[in-house]
Recover the amino acids of this structure.
């Protein structure tokens, strides 16, 4: 769980706490539940989502009631059937040509290939095809992983194609420069 929750719009309206709106908190809790290594303890979800423990508990109770999260007998929380179903629907909506193109790229290079989406200061890996058996190493990336733009090859290629002003704003926001 990478904790990069400050990707969205900075202007908020309505009642919000320092942890964000109810929807923002709920989405961060859901993302924490779906992170690898689950099912997760309440304390771990609270820390990963940066949401107060009482709010995390109420959010989880609602998500369990709705079937998006399941509660194990040892009070750990994992991905529920409705979230798995939603994930399958999203994956099914992907054009078949994307998988074919990624497969061709992997065959041509023998390397691991990734498809990622850009949002704010991060990219999110949405597809990964491992390279051939003779590849000397495996990448630690995984589908669903969010990574800062400036720390990955994919992110750097995104940065190379952004307008200069947007790159400057991103650099300032991550502390890379002041002008």
């Amino acid at each position: 769980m990478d904790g990069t929750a400050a990707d969205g719009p900075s202007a908020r309206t309505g009642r919000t706490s320092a942890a964000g709106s109810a929807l923002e908190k709920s989405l961060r809790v859901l993302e924490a539940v779906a992170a690898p290594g689950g099912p997760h303890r309440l304390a771990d979800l609270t820390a990963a989502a940066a949401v107060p423990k009482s709010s995390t508990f109420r959010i989880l109770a609602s998500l369990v009631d709705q079937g998006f999260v399941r509660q194990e007998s040892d009070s750990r929380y994992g991905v529920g059937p409705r979230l798995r179903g939603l994930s399958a629907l999203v994956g099914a909506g992907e054009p078949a040509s994307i998988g074919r193109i990624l497969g061709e790229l992997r065959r041509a290079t023998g390397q691991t290939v990734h498809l990622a989406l850009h949002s704010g200061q991060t990219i999110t890996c949405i597809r990964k095809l491992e390279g051939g058996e003779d590849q000397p190493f495996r990448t630690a990336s995984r589908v669903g992983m969010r990574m800062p733009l400036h720390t990955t090859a994919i992110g750097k290629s995104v940065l190379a194609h952004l307008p200069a002003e947007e790159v400057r704003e991103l650099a300032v926001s991550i502390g890379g420069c002041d002008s």
The two ends are 31 Å apart (CA to CA). Strands lie at 69-71, 77-79, 113-119, 122-129, 146-148.
